[in-house]
Every structure is written in C-alpha cells, then in structure tokens.
Amino acid sequence: MTIEGIWAYPAQAGRTGETDLTGFTVVAADGTVGHVDREAEHFGMRHLVVDTGVWVFGRSALVPAGVVSRVDPAGRRVEVACSRAEIKDAPRFRTDSETLDRDYLTRVGEYYHGLPPREPGPA
Fold this sequence. Notes:
- This protein has one domain (4-113): PRC-barrel domain (SH3 type barrels), CATH 2.30.30.
- The chain starts with 24 loop residues before the first strand and ends in a 10-residue tail after the last helix.
- By secondary structure, it is an alpha+beta fold.
- It is built from two helices and six strands; from the N terminus they run E-E-E-E-E-E-H-H.
C-alpha cells in the first residue's frame, strides 16, 4: 500500500458511503479498541476518531481509513488490521484541531504505513 493509500478504505473492506460508522465497535486483531466517535476527511485524509474508553485512560485515537480491514454494518462493527498496542502507540490524539493539522495527520499516516502487514482481525 502506498502512503496515500493509508487514507482510503480498502476495496475489500466493504465500506459503502451510505453507512454512518458513528457508534460502531472497533475491533483490532487482539480485541476491542472502542467505538467510532466520528469519521472525518481533511486534505483527502479520511480517518476515524475512536473513543478508546478506559483502556487508554479515556483518550481517543485517530485511525486512518486504510487500516480498516472490514466493515460489518449488520453487526455495527469495524475491524482494523493492527493490534490494540499499535493503536495505543500511534501519535497521540489530543484535540479535534489536530484533525485539521496536515503535519499531525502526516505523522499518523507514516506511523500506520510503517506497521508490518497483518491479516484482518477476527471475524
């Protein structure tokens, strides 16, 4: 995947534009991450803001669309092709203004693009 590809949903993920992912459960390769707080796209960089709940001390995480491996509208679930630890170790998301900061988004994209390829999460 190219670095630009990290910001687009993979074709095989089953993401359709008419489904609002807000509230969907986000599941990593090794367990539940949290739920989608919102989707956003700035500078052509589509991403999810994920409320991680208490496992990351109540903070949110920004996950590029290219990390999504599967969207299950019936189960209201989004699977990502990375681990919970990898999401936790990503550049820290602090404020909504960061979704408008091209440099921050670039750092996030480079981080996720640099992760080793992984099989999709649990079905």
